[in-house]
Amino acid sequence: MTVRTTRTAPAPRPPAPASPVTLLILGAGWTYQFLEPVLGREKISHAATTTTGRGSTIPFRFDSDSDDLTPFQALPDADYVLVTFPLKGRGPSTKLVRLYNETRHGQLRDSRAPAEWGSGHEHEHGDDHSHFSEDTNVGVAGSAKWIQLGSTGIWTTAAWNDESSAVNGTNARAVAEDELIALGGCVLNLAGLYGGGRNPRNWIARVAGSKKQLGEKGALHLIHGHDVARAVVGVVRTDRDRLDPKSGPDELIDHVQNSDKNYNNYKNNDDDDNNNNSGNAKLRNHLDSDITGKDAGLEPVFGRRWIVADCVSYDWWSLVWDWMGESAEKRESERESEPASDHKTDQYDDRSTKTQYRRWVAELMDENNVRGLPRSTELLGRKLDARRFWKTIGILPDRSLAR
């Protein structure tokens, strides 16, 4: 009689980890279209994830309810980890950091500092690489530093707000951000995102579909995707340069100024930049002395949140007035290039809508005794001050909204 034995299938091997990188991007979404070319140009090694693993990305999905280490085993060791998706409430930030650290492969290069560092030298330079609170038990010396992309919606006070202003403590994203900050992370709270197919002009019908809604609109704050990428790279560069004892303030200033020149050259090739350098001239002149001062770039970047905006408080009423008007040049061009056709009705409807919006703005100005646009900042409600972030990383935003 033949006895058959059943062979137990071997347990599947965990996915092989990728090579160590400087920056790991968890979630290669909208921001990645701007971030990838900047990282390449700056020669910063990086890897990125998507939920499907499309292209050259690593398949990864974070489940805050799971302790499964498998999704993390394919992730490379990194000096910095950028989280682009929102984390909400208490717990997910700690879990994400813990699961990542538990699956590290002993290959962390820690390119932020020379190889001889790691035995007490960190404190001499004012930055503790362990940077995680002891009671969380999620951090180890030399582990990655974490950067979270957040939203400026957590500031709700109808006045000027900066990175030190109180946030809405009941906001689930703010709670998760505070948890990551307690672990030594850096949160970049982004203003309204535009570029890459996102045009604030297209938001009007959604956010101001009636005169009442328009009347409630105050300041609009924006940041172009290109400047989001520069902000992320600026955080990494500033942190690494500060941790390198060979780089003093003068070297850091030279680096950020040269980087800014390179970015300015690049921006001229972007067809969707909505760039308005003249609008930024006064801002650039005003801040240049601070950027090149002896304290440029010396403020800690991690362990806190930052407001990332283009340093302009746009007036919604003024924007709508501008966008719903038509320049004389455009009207003349239309008369010369568009003969009578079946499209006349569509053009009339479009102009009718524009006229309605302009009428609303005019009525609101009368009702609120506003003599001219844009309104004074005192009338715009909540406003965001992003100056200290740009000063800290030693560059200025490139893009402002074309009007």
TrEMBL record:
Region of interest called Disordered, as start-end residue ranges on this chain: 108-135, 240-290, 331-351
Compositional bias (Basic and acidic residues): 108-134, 240-258
Top-level taxon: Eukaryota
Gene3D superfamilies: NAD(P)-binding Rossmann-like Domain
Coiled-coil region: none
Name recorded for this polypeptide: Uncharacterized protein
Organism annotation: Capronia epimyces CBS 606.96
Upper taxonomic lineage: Eukaryota, Fungi, Dikarya, Ascomycota, Pezizomycotina
